[in-house]
Amino acid sequence: MSLISPLALLAAAVIGPLIVAMYLLKLRREERPVSSTFLWQRMVRDVEANAPWQKLRRSLLLLLQLLLMLLLVFALARPFLAAQGISGRNLILIIDHSASMSATDEPPTRLQAAKARAYQLIDQLPDGGRATVIAAGGRMAVPAAATADRRELRRAIEQIQPSNGGGSDLAPALTLAAALAAREEDSEVAIISDGNVTLPTNVRVPARVSYFPIGRTTENMAISAIALQPATSGQTLFVQATNYGQAVASRRLDLYLDGALFNAYNLSLDPGREQSIIAEIPAQVQVVEARLAGDDALPADDRAFAVSSVGEAVTVRVVTPGNRFLETGLSLLPGIRTTSVPTSTTTFSETVAQVPVTIFDGVVPAELPPGNLFFINPVRSSPYFSVTGTIEFPLLRPSGGQEPILRNVSLSEVSVLKAARIVPGSWGRVVVDSDGGPLLVVGEREGRRVAVLAFDLHESDLPLQIAFPLLLSNLMNFLAPGSGAEAAQLLPGQPLSRQVDEAISEVRVTRPDGRTVSSRTGEVQIQAGQAIYADTDALGVYLVEERAGEQVVGRHRYAINLFAPAESHIAAQRDLSVPQTSGASSTVSRERDSRQEFWRWVALVALIVLVVEWLVYQRNGLAYLRERWRQRRSTGSRPARS
Amino acid sequence: MPAVTTSAPLLESSFLRQLDRLALLTRRPMAGDIQGERRSPRRGASVEFADFRPYARGDDIRQIDWNLYARAERFYLKLFVAEEELQVHLLVDTSASMDWGTPNKLHYARQLAAAYGYIALANLDRVSVTAFGTGPLAAQLPGVRGKRGAVPLFAFLQRLQPGTGGDLARACHRYIQTARATGPLLLCSDLLDAGWKDALGALSSRPFEITIMHILAPQELEPDLDGDFKLIDVEGGPPVEISADLELIRRYKQQLASWRAELESYCNGRGITYLPVDTSVPVDEFVLGRMRRRGVLR
Predict the structure, then answer these.
(1) Are residues A326 and A432 in the same domain?
(2) What is the distance in angstroms between the Cα of A58 and the nearest Cα belonging to chain B?
(3) Among A108, A484, A614, B36, which residue carries the largest CB count within 10 Å?
């Protein structure tokens, strides 16, 4: 414990003698002649013999006043405790609220422990210090921005809820923190997390970064994959369980078909290994649940759901002069039914619900059909893009990052002979670029999804490579969302979207917790032929009902599972490597010069002493009042005399 | 508080008339100096037969019972109960502590002594007054007798001035040594002296019939103090510093009560009549009520 302004103690040297002097002056008691002090002497002798501290009592007021003075002076000296924590005046608090923070190894959950730590840090803020609270992982949120109001900060921290979706990417949060820290001096960034996060490499934080690890256990077993595919007879279920811990784990895997227990498997997994189970499931089963029996630190990944996709094929209209590659590729995709249409067709009468996707291979009709569109090798401009020429031998440059269209797709071996030079509108994002122009553009405009592949499949070796079926699958997932087994499985936070036509007046979603939301109340949005429900953070099966009037037209199930190895790896990291402008990159908690001031408590004690001093001074009056009250009560209980 | 030295009569005449009807009560016969109206332990001349005794040479032959001589052929004297006066001792403490309180304790003591003395004088008893408290020498009224003696008695009491302080025990010892005849003894004092036990012991060493008037002022019974005080003893005792609060006052009263209980039990053990007096009670009410009930007067 040290003092910030020890000079204030000098005040004690001045005020202390002053109080004593005044007390001594006051001590000249009023003299009162009495007949004899004989009785008083006897009594005082008695009292002094019985209580040696009686003499002290006479100067109790003096002692209290001196104590009060000392406490006030002490508070003025601003004492503080050196504590481990933060020392900056501008604190940027990043609290990880990703799924792994729901682990229960820190009772009640890691997130609660993180909040408790955050409260501590808020308490350590120096006077006038400000703090920003950033909830990172999943959807980033800033519930409190640069405020000195501790109550607001506490409220903001309290409001942070665990988020299952979105992964544990700290990049946006750290970028924001770096920007905030750059604006103000004496900043400090505190990361409260279990450390299973993705850190940016290109951000250099202009402040000290402290990391407060949360979490103890490393053991976790999870269901890492589940799939339910239509088979020749019935359905095939694929379940994969993974041991993310560091010790051998044995759990029982229970399978429930539409809520009824179907089978159980005893699993024993070495650390880091997974085990797959394939089971034949009757065709009429709608929902399969796989559940790991027993408890572990992270219960969220112990359950997974799969929904049946039997009879849910999506019709894809292919307008082509003949493309064997395309037809073969589409026929391999589950849940896709193709209908070929001659290139001479100019009018399309089917609704979106009947034919949601149309593929134009080498043709661009004057009138485009409703629904999503996929142009391959467009020969002329359309409302979505313009064709300005051709590119010879373009070099493919896939876009970086986590482009879902390019998931698992390697285009490095692909060569293209000739491609159309297209100029897409502002709707499109370029997935594959080249020197001459974009080669693959996807995007969304007025609720309609459009993809443009700029070259003819026959003029490239793409169809001969393994990348082609994968790219086609990804593209079809994009163009025909909500179709097939793959599409019925979503990650938490990913919006449920479904194409609906005009006949459907209401879309209802029944959530896993039993709550039903409807498009009537605006919770499910219907925009430009698409019904979208975004609040999918809860894990489980969502039932989407499409209604035309009072009649249920379509019923679809979606399963939302936490398949995130990064979240299931719950072992807390001891250090995070965050580059800082000071050159350091380690953020491990070490001895710090944090100051925890507690003059408020000292002042509070001084206030209590003041009250006690006043009570002692007024003790006679108080005793008199008590006596009076007692008398009144005793007379009040007596019946009134007549 | 100043001594009451007004010229107003010590006792009201109406009160005196009431006192005329009263008499002192003594528990046993007392010897006096001269003939009076009280039974004496001695044999003497009265109408009340007491005893016979054989004639011895020198006896008054007029007292021989001739009827008995006729029967027994021996000379016997017929003895009668002597009736003598009573020697009433009034002791008034005039120490400085007595000149205190409202109503004044010394004045009250004067009135009590006057009333008691007047009753005695009305019954033809001899009354002597001794006031001590001024020092080694006590003011004394040697002895008055008869109703005429009331005037000098009252005048003497009126003249009493409070002294500076005194040793109660020593004064009592001296008085016991010098008093000639025993008789009813009335001590009017506040006994606020460390030697009270010694003093009462000395008085009870001779067969007086002692009555203690323990006079305390209401300010002593219920001190009206609140705050920090330095209590100055008017007799020059050591000062006491107190921080008076209700708790202290409560303890003081407890102390006072236990002291009075101690006094009373001490007196009872020695045949002394102990009468606590509160000066706020009017003196006539006290004499006519309390003292009669207690059996001091009749």
Answers:
(1) yes
(2) 7
(3) A484
Please tell me if residue B101 touches chain A, with a CB cutoff of 8 Å. Answer: yes
Which chain A residue's Cα is nearest to B231?
A: A32
At A28 the pLDDT is 67
CA angle centred on B70, ends B68 and B76, rounded to 5°: 35
* Mean pLDDT within A130-158: 85
A533 in a structural domain: yes
Closest CA to A314 of A502, A476, A439: A476
- pLDDT value at B61 more than 60: yes
| Chain B residues within 8 A of A620 when measuring between CB atoms | 226-227, 245-246
Of A212, A208, A217, A174, residue with least CA distance to A193: A212
Nearest CA to B53 out of B75, B71, B73 is that of B75
> What is the number of domains present in chain A?
5
Q: What is the dihedral of CA A49, A51, A53, A58, to 10 degrees?
A: -90
Q: A36 to chain B: nearest residue by CA?
A: B233
Whether residue A286 is found in the same domain as residue A377: no
Same domain (yes/no): A175, A272: no
* Domain membership of residue A430 as a residue range: 314-485
A619 and chain B in contact, CB less than 8 A: yes
Q: Taking the domain B13-30+87-293, which CATH number applies? A: 3.40.50.410
Which residues 50-89 of chain A have a CB within 8 Å of chain B? 57-58
For A196-224, the pLDDT digits (tens) are: 787 877 778 888 888 888 888 888 888 88
Task: Flag whether A396 is in a domain.
Answer: yes
If you average pLDDT over every residue of chain B, what do you get?
85
Question: Quick check: is A23 in a domain?
Answer: yes
The span from the CA of A488 to the CA of A235, in Å, is 15
Is the CB of residue B238 less than 8 Å away from at least one CB of chain A? yes
Which member of A37, A46, A620 has the closest CB to residue B233?
A37
* Highest-pLDDT range among A85-99, A156-170, A620-634, B260-274: B260-274
Domain residue spans of chain B:
13-30+87-293, 35-84
What confidence tens digit (pLDDT) does each residue in B240-254 have?
A: 877 777 778 888 899
Residues A134 and A22 both lie in one domain: no
Asked if A115 and A157 touch (Cβ cutoff 8 Å), the reply is yes
CATH of the domain at A269: 2.60.40.10
Contact between B256 and A39 using a beta-carbon 8 Å cutoff: yes
